[in-house]
């Protein structure tokens, strides 16, 4: 049986891992390689690296650290941030990343998703979606969320976009519920359930994890394939090994400890 | 021992190269027919789609080279799928080193395609290739197409239906999962292939 995945997310800025609250006020958490190996050893199933300033600054990912991580890691990892075309994706994948994740560039030019899928196969094309509930009650997508001053609210409904990107060739969707991000009060189960109902590819919950029970709720109530978190892992509030033990006790299939 | 990784444009080429490096194995990355034909072990990595994968092998003039190899060959992920006669992905003819056709994995409620993540191996036949890899070992998969469980299947896995996870027929072997990203069990499969061949 396929295991549910636990994915620490490492936001990368200037070659270091940082974490902010609701995408603001970033503090340095440590060196990329150190954190990558720490999470591998603790039992992470996969890692995601977000180059959070690449897209707002209009540049591609620095592939030097991607290659350093690829040499060290024996678990899969995905790279996001600033991938705007097939050649940038190729550079990141050839440096050793297993998947690439696109967010703002896919909103700017949706054909990017199908170009990546045609060239590399749908299995390594992840679409990240930053979503927030508007005053009228609809969830809509946000672009350029790496920089609060440039973040744009788009008219596109999150549920429509989830369906569009699957048709274009997304092999996985990471739904970042911005309203819950960094506040550790739990994943946005309602929104995840709504997205799950229209998402037929693997779905990754992101934003809001504060304790082990939040992960269990996302798996049990929203049937997500994976749960992503950053601050609770960085701060040591949730240890992956303990989290897996909790999930196993509740009958949720997770990867065995090494 | 000359180990060559076929440079077929597969996106996991670097990862496989590094995984061999972690085992202390120096591999050459090559798209050159003569160098591949002279190797002791040949690995065909691959992430991508079957059509571009085969097109790249044809462009490099490697189709006949791979068909005629007399040394052990290991296909990984798409590289394994290209060993079969054909693939439903793009309806392409492949290398034909293993009988059968690679097919799209059927999606069903609660069953997502691509099949992505850590899943368990069910051992079907003993083989030096599986030494040190126990029944139920979890390895990392990312794929939307798969090969059927048939006589060449050493280990299967299950996502809805059972499918071939590790295959071998004479000198030709394949892993549908990613040994380069499957922790200690993946490393063991690579080491077994290098040390023992088929």
Automatic annotation (TrEMBL), chain A:
Listed CDD domains: HisF (cd04731)
Cited Pfam families: His_biosynth
Compartments, as annotated in UniProt: Cytoplasm
Chief site of localization: cytoplasm
EC numbers, comma separated: 4.3.2.10
Keyword ATP-binding: no
Enzyme active site: 11, 130
Family: Belongs to the HisA/HisF family.
Protein known as: Imidazole glycerol phosphate synthase subunit HisF
Native source species: Arenimonas donghaensis DSM 18148 = HO3-R19
UniProtKB/TrEMBL annotation, chain B:
Catalytic residue list: 77, 178, 180
Pathway as given in its UniProt record: Amino-acid biosynthesis; L-histidine biosynthesis; L-histidine from 5-phospho-alpha-D-ribose 1-diphosphate: step 5/9
Alphabetically ordered keywords of this record: Amino-acid biosynthesis, Cytoplasm, Glutamine amidotransferase, Histidine biosynthesis, Hydrolase, Lyase
Record bears the keyword Transit peptide: no
Residue ranges constituting the Glutamine amidotransferase domain according to the UniProt record: 4-194
SUPFAM superfamilies reported for this sequence: Class I glutamine amidotransferase-like (SSF52317)
One family name in Pfam for this protein: GATase
One function term, GO molecular function aspect: imidazoleglycerol-phosphate synthase activity
InterPro entries named among the record's database cross-references: Class_I_gatase-like (IPR029062), GATASE (IPR017926), Imidazole-glycPsynth_HisH (IPR010139)
Catalytic activity reported: 5-[(5-phospho-1-deoxy-D-ribulos-1-ylimino)methylamino]-1-(5-phospho-beta-D-ribosyl)imidazole-4-carboxamide + L-glutamine = D-erythro-1-(imidazol-4-yl)glycerol 3-phosphate + 5-amino-1-(5-phospho-beta-D-ribosyl)imidazole-4-carboxamide + L-glutamate + H(+); L-glutamine + H2O = L-glutamate + NH4(+)
Subcellular location: Cytoplasm
Predominant cellular place of this UniProt entry's protein: cytoplasm
PANTHER family the UniProt entry points to: IMIDAZOLE GLYCEROL PHOSPHATE SYNTHASE SUBUNIT HISH
Protein name: Imidazole glycerol phosphate synthase subunit HisH
Natural source organism: Arenimonas donghaensis DSM 18148 = HO3-R19
